[in-house]
Amino acid sequence: MITVFSNRVYKKRIGRSAEIEIEQETYKYNRAKWYLVKLLTREHNGIFCFLKDFSLHMLVKMKFGFSDYFANSVIIDAKAAWSSRVELHKLEIAELRDRITVKKKKVEKLRKELKGMRAMLISCIRISKASKLKKPPKKDLKLKTYRGCKER
Prior knowledge:
3 helices
């Protein structure tokens, strides 16, 4: 972050009119900064191509009536805020991808467990049907275990 004013300004030492003027300039500065951030975002996304006609410096000077010093400060702050937003967006995407992979692994694990339990259930049904027969086959009396669903 850059320093716009080099000396600290206290409200007690300045008059009310100067305080209001500083407040208005600060508000205007912030409006210009976020306007440029929005413009840079639109330009990056390909929605808005106004920057080919004018430079950022000229755009800020025309729209907000700033001097060169304030225009440069606004541009530097806006670019910093925009690049920070882009980096944060990349981090959020990476975090979301990590969460998706964790959820996929969990779903796959639950799917394997369900497959094993289903095999056990089918095995139990087969045993109950085979036990009602007079001479059941030996393979129908074997129980598939949950682990790996292999017969014992």
